[in-house]
Specification:
By secondary structure, the protein is α+β, with helices and mostly antiparallel strands. About 25% of the residues lie in helices and about 35% in strands. A four-stranded antiparallel β-sheet has the order 1-3-2-4. A hairpin with a 5-residue loop joins strand 2 (about 20-25) and strand 3 (about 30-40). It starts with a strand and ends in a 12-residue tail after the last strand.
Length: about 80
């Protein structure tokens, strides 16, 4: 997919999925605002394997779902 989608379009099309975004556009706070979706899956590991296979120069991986209340997030 070579079409550049906004973050709202990505979240709408790929709800509760992991998304590999090539050439992400960001704002001043480095939040993703748009980009080209190269792969998506409910399986996070599958998306990371695809990133290794495609080897994009600039990319981001985004989860479009909600994080459960009992989950821990490490940044």
């Amino acid at each position: 997919m070579d079409e550049v989608l906004t973050i709202a379009e990505i979240e709408s099309r790929f709800g509760s999925e992991w998304v590999l975004i090539e050439d992400p556009e960001t704002n001043e706070a480095l939040d993703i605002t748009a980009g080209k979706v190269r792969w998506h899956s409910r399986n996070r590991d599958e998306v990371y394997r695809k990133a290794i296979e495609l080897h994009p120069v600039r990319f981001a991986v985004l989860f479009t779902g909600s994080i459960p209340n009992d989950a821990a997030v490490v940044l």
